[in-house]
Design brief:
The complex is a heterodimer of chains A (757) and B (250). Chain A has 757 residues and is α+β, with helices and mostly antiparallel strands. Chain A is built from 26 helices and 28 strands. In chain A, the strands form five sheets. Chain A has a seven-stranded mixed sheet with strand order 8-10-7-11-9-12-13, sandwiched between helices. Chain A has a seven-stranded mixed sheet with strand order 23-25-22-26-24-27-28, with helices on both faces. In chain A, strands 1-2-3-6-4-5 form a six-stranded mixed sheet. Chain B is an alpha/beta fold and 250 residues long. Classes of the chains: A alpha+beta (757), B alpha/beta (250).
């Protein structure tokens, strides 16, 4: 019955099948094969990535829970833990953007409350192709509506995020969702099944045929038949999830619970196996007891369904009534579908007859582990070549004008501000409820997302960042830059970075070039996390992000969480008052490799990404935290996409029209003077922050910076209604703030307005 | 004075309302579970924002059948102050406690942002501390806040001075480009004929602390305090209203 075709449909190789037979001591039946196929899928087993992930730093005194559970947890003081994780829903979102994104939000929220934490904040990191394409606009609208539809309904604010538009994601958008919750540090709940005879309960939505083989789908490339996989995408029900969330948190208040896990990827199969495996126990269930939405479902279908909003929990013997009563209050029914055993087996019955029997270990610990071959991809050396002397003539006309910007940095600035990657994301974030729960202390678009913790003085800041272009040009350095940027954004708000989570989006790991990108990126993440003392507490790997054989840019997305000892000392990106002094912390080197400037003005993705000195980065971040805590800085904005000129412009936006006048050093990167000026204005050297300071505190700030070994210099001051920037003494940008802000704030709207007109 | 905050299973601004009433304004406040049938002697009832029963049909359409809505209605009919915020406003419309209906926002998208409101009427328990024409900057967060009523009803509402709050520009001028959802006549808040039941789409509980970006929502809570103090000196003791309603359990 099980032939090559069946194996192919299950995404299993002949070798893997032989391994299965070895573990079982016999041929598996189809149900068992299905169970193996999802547990051994890339999505669940991390078979290509595990050897690399093991090298990441995961420990520190602040870490309460590292990788391996539903989410990581760190100590934030006051007896509290922040529980957080980021996860991808790329493949489903491409096939069905609304539901794909919505169920991504639902999944990560379940991971958080499963740990006993109340989810209080969401972030997302999105990648799309060029907005010129109607297909991209449709995907963007669907994904944003899906995230909004789920998060808004359930009442968890989306407090920030990032989004990049880049051709490489045209056939494969990225939807990475981050969720953070708060729990008492002593009350963290784990996904374990233990205690022979304890009841295994199923609660939540009924099981249907939706999402069967979703995990397997997420472990294959896309082609023109991908649309046919739509039935593998599930439909979300945020109301059901809200009931589950409240009921589960209420059950967790009692101590009647042994463990709990959500049924995410690979549904009932994954939750029963993992809970048993973590508890060193076995689990026996009868699928005929599982609440079903459709008739005639086979054990195979029930075990592999990925219907949403379902939880599996193990209750203490004798306390079942308590648990059931709480679920009844929320109009949910906890159904006993089995019990914990001591034989380490996953045993599935149908009306008492055993239909599958597999050692847990074979599904989890013994899953295949691949050290896949890797080689430096061929494109790399060529792409890293950047001849700045030669490109002066290659610039493309400024978008929206016929004229070249030749020498006119005002026009260049406006073109940069109009780039959808840089432009205001208000069109997106105003569709998210970012204020529900009345904790949001830094609105989206103003820097790191931040929430206060009621009943304490503290707050939490969080940021997700990644730069696929940098990683394409140098995955090691690009990944380090992503960690540094996420942590720097957190530090700019005044919070001390504590820990990180990662979502690794890559192409097909069976290609040695992709595997090399992956390995290098993981190395880079490890190096940066160690240096900046932000251990990785969990995350997710998304491979096979390819369409028709074309991979996305390697895109590790890093989420960093930090703690503010005084929530009311939060710092945002906006200038606060005219007459403040503007300082640059850190040093520019006019680095244009992989920059937004080269992309926007020259349509080039070339060169090497900016250098990163981890010691300097660490010192800068520590200084920012001190400055915020001592109330010495009024605003702070990380200098990244678009360099210094864009950063200063953004500091002036969303204020009452406070302008700025600054003067910066020139730099020599080319024989072409225009490019030299552009490098000073738009170069993307790392470890730089623009801060504004009350005049009589400038001396203190400079003294603290000197003490910390952070280069700092006064650039100018806030005030007036124009943005004036001099490079090496010559004013090269003189632009009305209102006009620049109009361009920046309406750029994304205009892509959608065009369509209506 | 005691606030009763109704909790439907899909309410998600219930904690925010409780936090405002209890922690910021120092009043007694308690949740009222939607399956309950008494108001626990509440003097003021708030129907908070959220998605009461998932709102897959129409926002608030099913909430009116929740057991708690019986005593809420009786409380309202006796003159007890009831405030519906966002989803609470939608529920008041669906329950017939306020006239009209909500449509999806013009533009068909959920919108969360600060808006400007002009206080039109100050003879309601929730605007008594404001001045007429006062401009408030308060956030909204909804996908269905496009208020609609047929012309005759609308005429009546306007004639009875039932429009309590209107969307305006920052200077208090009616301007369609500042109307976030397409509401007819820029209606953001409405009261019943007896003026004790008020519904509003913006969230005053989100605008009570400087740290959250503004305090213009405080006037709504200040108003109810002012009203209850005034009522306390008269014969109608609203807490007595609550008690008698809870005694009517059937």
């Amino acid at each position: 019955m099980i032939d090559a075709k069946v194996l192919e449909r299950h995404g299993l190789t002949k070798d893997e099948y032989d391994r299965i037979v070895g573990f079982m001591g016999r041929e598996p039946n189809l149900t068992e094969l299905g169970i193996f196929s999802v547990m051994w899928s890339e999505h669940c087993s991390y078979k290509s990535s595990r050897v690399h992930l093991k090298t990441l730093p995961t420990e520190g005194p602040q870490v309460l829970q590292g990788p391996g559970e539903n989410a990581g947890a760190v100590d934030i003081g006051e007896g509290l833990a922040a529980v957080f994780k980021i996860e991808s829903h790329n493949h489903p979102s491409f096939i069905e953007p609304y539901q794909g994104a919505a169920t991504g939000v639902g999944g990560i929220i379940r991971d958080i409350f499963t740990m006993g934490a109340r989810p209080i904040a969401l972030l997302n990191s999105l990648r799309f192709g060029d907005l010129d394409s109607p297909g991209t606009r449709r995907l963007l609208e669907g994904v944003v509506a899906g995230i909004a539809g789920y998060g808004n309904s359930i009442g968890i604010p989306t407090v920030g995020g990032e989004i990049v538009f880049e051709g490489s994601y045209g056939g494969n958008p990225l939807v990475n969702v981050f969720c953070l919750g708060i729990a008492k540090a002593s009350d963290i709940i784990k996904g374990v099944a233990s205690g022979v005879g304890n009841g295994v309960y199923y609660v939540g939505a009924k099981t249907g045929r939706d999402g069967i083989h979703g995990a397997t789908m997420a472990s294959a490339e896309f082609d023109d038949k991908s649309a046919e996989k739509r039935p593998a995408v599930q439909v979300g029900d945020p109301f059901m999830e809200k009931l589950l969330l409240e009921a589960c948190l209420e059950v967790m208040q009692t101590d009647a619970l042994i463990g709990i896990q959500d049924m995410g990827a690979a549904g009932l199969t994954c939750s029963t196996t993992e809970m048993g495996s973590r508890g060193g126990a076995g689990v026996e269930i009868d699928v005929s007891l599982v609440p079903q939405r459709e008739t005639g479902m086979t054990p195979y279908e029930i075990m592999l369904s990925e219907s949403q909003e379902r939880m599996l929990l193990v209750a203490k013997q004798g306390r079942e009534d308590e648990v059931e009563r709480i679920f009844e209050k929320w109009d949910l029914h906890a159904v006993r579908i089995g019990h914990v055993t001591d034989d380490g087996m996953l045993r599935v019955k149908e009306r008492g007859v055993v239909v599958a029997e597999i050692p847990n270990r074979a599904l989890t610990d013994e899953a295949p582990l691949y050290r896949r071959p890797m080689t430096e991809p061929e494109y790399l050396r060529e792409a890293q070549q950047l001849d700045l002397d030669a490109i002066g003539s290659s610039e493309k006309p400024v978008p929206g004008t016929r004229a070249s910007h030749r020498g006119d940095q005002n026009t260049a600035l406006l073109a940069m501000l109009a780039s959808p990657t840089i432009a205001s994301k208000k069109w997106i974030y105003r569709q998210y409820d970012h204020m529900v729960r009345t904790n949001t202390i830094n609105m989206p678009g103003l820097g790191a997302g931040a929430v206060r913790i009621k009943g304490t003085d503290i707050g939490l800041a969080m940021s997700v960042d990644g730069n696929g272009r940098h990683c394409y040009l140098d995955p090691y350095r690009g990944a380090m830059l992503a960690v540094a940027e996420a942590a720097r954004n957190v530090a700019c708000s005044g919070a001390r970075p504590l820990a990180a989570t990662n979502c690794l989006n890559f192409g097909n790991p069976e290609r040695p070039g992709i595997m090399w990108q992956f390995a290098k990126a993981v190395e880079g993440i490890g190096a940066a996390c160690r240096a900046l003392d932000v251990p990785i507490t969990g995350g997710n790997v998304s491979l096979y992000n390819e369409t028709d054989g074309k991979a996305i840019y390697p895109t590790p997305t890093i989420g960093v969480v930090g703690v503010l000892t005084h929530a009311d000392r939060i710092v945002g990106r906006r200038f606060q008052e005219s007459g403040d002094v503007i300082l640059l912390l850190g040093e520019g080197r006019g680095e244009l490799g992989g920059s937004e400037y080269l992309k926007v003005m020259h349509d080039l993705v070339r060169g090497v990404p900016p250098r990163l000195e981890l010691d300097a980065e660490r010192a800068l971040q520590a200084l920012l935290v001190t400055l915020a805590d001592d109330r010495l800085m009024r605003s702070a904005h990380d200098c990244s996409d678009g360099g210094l000129a864009v950063t200063v412009a953004e500091c002036a936006f969303d204020t009452v029209g406070i302008g700025a006048e600054i003067s910066i050093d020139g730099t020599t990167v080319s024989r072409d003077e225009t490019l030299n000026i552009a490098a000073a204005l738009f170069g993307e050297s790392a470890s730089r922050v623009v801060v504004s300071v009350v005049p009589d505190q400038v001396t203190s700030v400079l003294r603290l910076a000197a003490g910390a070994g952070v280069p700092a210099r006064v650039m100018g001051q806030t005030g007036g209604s124009r943005l004036r920037i001099a490079v090496a003494g010559d004013i090269v940008i003189d632009q009305s703030v209102d006009e620049a802000e109009r361009v920046w704030s309406t750029a994304i709207d205009r892509y959608f307005a065009q369509r209506v007109a | 004075m005691k606030f009763g905050i109704v909790v439907f299973p899909g309410s998600n601004c219930d904690e925010d309302a409780l936090h405002a009433a209890r922690d910021l304004f120092g009043h007694d406040a308690d949740y009222l579970w939607h399956k309950d049938t008494d108001l626990k002697s509440a003097d003021v009832v708030i129907l908070p924002g959220g998605f009461a029963h998932g709102d897959y049909l129409r926002t608030g359409a099913m909430a009116r059948f929740s057991p708690i809505m019986g005593p809420v209605r009786a409380f309202a009919e006796r003159g007890g102050p009831v405030l519906g915020i966002c989803n609470g406003f939608q529920i008041l419309l669906e329950s017939g406690l306020l006239p009209g209906a909500m449509l999806r926002n013009k533009g068909l998208k959920y919108r969360c942002e600060h808006v400007h409101l002009r206080v039109e009427q100050i003879d309601t328990p929730f605007t008594a501390a404001a001045t007429r024409g006062q401009i408030l900057r308060i956030p909204i967060g909804h996908g269905e806040g496009n208020y609609f009523a047929p012309p005759e009803t609308l005429q009546q509402i306007e004639a009875n001075r039932q429009v309590v709050l209107r969307y305006t520009d920052p200077n208090g001028r009616i301007d369609e480009s500042w109307n976030p959802n397409g509401s007819v006549n820029g209606i953001a808040g409405l009261c019943n004929e007896a003026r004790n039941v008020v519904g509003m789409m913006p969230h005053p509980e989100r605008a009570c602390e400087p740290l959250l970006g503004g305090v213009d929502g405080r006037v709504i809570f200040d108003s109810i305090v002012l009203t209850m103090r005034a009522a306390g000196s008269r014969e109608l003791q609203p807490s007595a209203v609550g008690a008698s309603v809870s005694g009517e359990r059937s």
